[in-house]
Amino acid sequence: MIRGLRVFTEMISQCEHDVVVRAIDLKFGKRRYERDHWDGVITNFRETEFQASFPCFERIEELLQSLGAGKLQTPHALDLAPNGHIDPHIDSVKFSGSTVAVLSLVNAATLRLGPSELRVEPRSLYVLQDEARYDHEHAILPEGRRLSLIFRDEVASER
């Protein structure tokens, strides 16, 4: 296992999952999937900031801060179409601090982190810090539509 990778299975309940998914779907509405992301890493996706107050978000924030994360930015909802994907990359240090955490929703996917592969199930949260955050590219190989919420802490100069 790569240092700095943590996985929390069943981070949220099925009921919380369903409520969050409905809320994100309402936010996206009929918005179309985009073919290319500005950084060339994501294809066939929809993305938006998702500011909402759910008890499960408070639990996630408390967990991340217990792991050393700074103040969190507004979460981003990322919706990959069934033919979408996220190519290997390291999240930019210009836009994200020392912690990147992803709450997986809807369908399972494979997280490829450096030489390792890990299946991430819906309702699980994976956290990238330290070596996992800075030294290894990660990619997502979805199994059907993939919806996720991305939690990042602020860049150190913004804290």
Automatic annotation (TrEMBL):
It comes from the Eukaryota. GO terms for biological process: DNA damage response; fatty acid metabolic process. This is Uncharacterized protein. InterPro entries: AlkB-like_sf, ALKBH7-like. GO terms for cellular component: mitochondrial matrix. It comes from Chrysophaeum taylorii.
